Inverse folding.
């Protein structure tokens, strides 16, 4: 302590005793701007509080009398006697007066316990806060916090990765920068409506699927769980977000595989029947005809047996491409198994148009296919059933077209037959 009176910023304090209590008291006062520790005293120069004070640049003493004399220039100084020596308390009262500026004995013991408890609580709070921050920082899901006017207050690393923004770029910005239109324009009014009425559209709903926007403008599917919290009397909203792009792509792939042929990517039987049912509904409402064509390739087995299954698969893919090009955009073709295909021709007008379409398909198949450096040829036998004359439900129409296809094969292949030809043969047979 210098002889010249020191300029201080806070309330002056002298600590006598640098053991556990004095150390705890010093540590607490060093974080309080309202208090300035003038000095700390202990007969043991190696006491923990002495070492701590020296690290902070605070004067230290081994004699309490010297410290009291050095601090007498500060009559409003509060002395904390943690030495258990009441003689020191008497000296302090003599120098500073008996106006309760000296704390000692049971009073100091109680104060020391309070400081210790506060220090423990502070440590526990800091530990909990550090754990919470670590969880938020390392969470796989994005965590975004906004205040009640929609300004972003928290944006963890996972959110940075999902949206492409650094935290510093979004803090204080409106959450709607992460939304596409029309949600972007409606966001503030939604928040205001929720605060006024309490009616939630998203708040409190777990795993809601929404569309979000990255920094580069790309839109992507996102899963959102949003909740409300009150902290320090202020209302905040917390959103847990997850980019579900990969999941949606997987779901779409699974759905596609459930309705499309894995080899040719044409609709399968299940989707064909759904499409045919829809076509029948439209035809019934608008009073027009539908033709169902059942195609079975002629000569496919020979190619498959001679050149192998891989060549057979390649042939089916090439056939599928030709078949798709042979029909109108309003019509459809499906692979229903092996070398069998079914066509749905909408609004055909007359039966003759169905025959024209069948001939076009047969002509398309008549051109050779190149497989493994060889020219291969296949044909096609086609059966035709007409809605509403032949039948009025999908399965019956398909069955009748199948029966007509077998008649075409029996009639020399590479041709077509109507279901009515099957009925005529039964009558004449």
């Amino acid at each position: 302590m210098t002889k010249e009176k020191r300029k201080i910023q806070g309330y002056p304090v002298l600590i006598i005793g640098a053991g556990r209590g004095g150390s705890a008291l010093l540590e607490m006062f060093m974080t309080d701007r309202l208090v300035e520790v003038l000095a700390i005293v202990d007969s043991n120069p190696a006491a923990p509080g002495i070492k701590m004070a020296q690290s902070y640049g605070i004067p230290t003493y081994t004699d309490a009398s010297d410290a009291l004399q050095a601090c007498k220039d500060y009559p409003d100084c509060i002395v904390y006697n943690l030495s258990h020596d009441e003689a020191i308390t008497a000296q302090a009262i003599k120098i500073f007066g008996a106006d309760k500026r000296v704390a000692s004995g049971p009073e100091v013991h109680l104060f020391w316990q309070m400081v210790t408890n506060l220090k423990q609580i502070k440590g526990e709070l800091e530990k909990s806060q550090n754990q919470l921050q670590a969880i938020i920082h390392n969470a796989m899901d994005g965590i975004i916090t906004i205040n009640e006017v929609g300004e972003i207050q928290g944006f963890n690393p996972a959110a940075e990765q999902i949206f492409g923004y650094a935290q510093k770029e979004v803090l204080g910005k409106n959450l709607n920068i992460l939304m596409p239109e029309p949600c972007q324009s409606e966001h503030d009014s939604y928040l205001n409506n929720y605060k006024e009425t309490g009616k939630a559209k998203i708040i409190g709903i777990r795993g809601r699927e929404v569309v979000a926007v990255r920094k580069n403008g790309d839109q992507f599917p996102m899963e959102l769980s949003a909740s409300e919290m009150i902290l320090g009397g202020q209302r905040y909203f917390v959103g847990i977000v997850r980019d579900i792009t990969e999941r949606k792509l997987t779901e779409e792939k699974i759905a596609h595989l459930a309705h499309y042929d894995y080899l040719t990517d044409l609709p399968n039987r299940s989707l064909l029947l759904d499409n045919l049912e829809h076509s029948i509904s439209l035809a019934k409402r608008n009073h027009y005809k539908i033709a169902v064509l059942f195609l079975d390739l002629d000569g496919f087995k020979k190619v498959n047996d001679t050149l192998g299954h891989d060549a057979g698969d390649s042939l089916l893919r090439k056939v599928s491409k030709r078949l798709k090009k042979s029909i109108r955009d309003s019509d459809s073709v499906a692979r229903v198994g092996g070398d069998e295909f079914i066509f749905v021709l909408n609004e055909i007008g007359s039966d003759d148009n169905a025959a024209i379409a069948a001939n076009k398909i047969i002509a398309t198949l008549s051109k050779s296919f190149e497989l493994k450096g060889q020219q291969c040829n296949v044909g096609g036998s086609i059966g035709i059933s007409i809605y509403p004359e032949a039948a009025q439900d999908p399965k019956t129409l398909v069955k009748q077209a199948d029966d007509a296809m077998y008649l075409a094969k029996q009639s020399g292949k590479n041709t077509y037959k109507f279901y009515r030809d099957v009925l005529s043969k039964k009558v004449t047979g």
The first helix runs from residue 20 to 29.
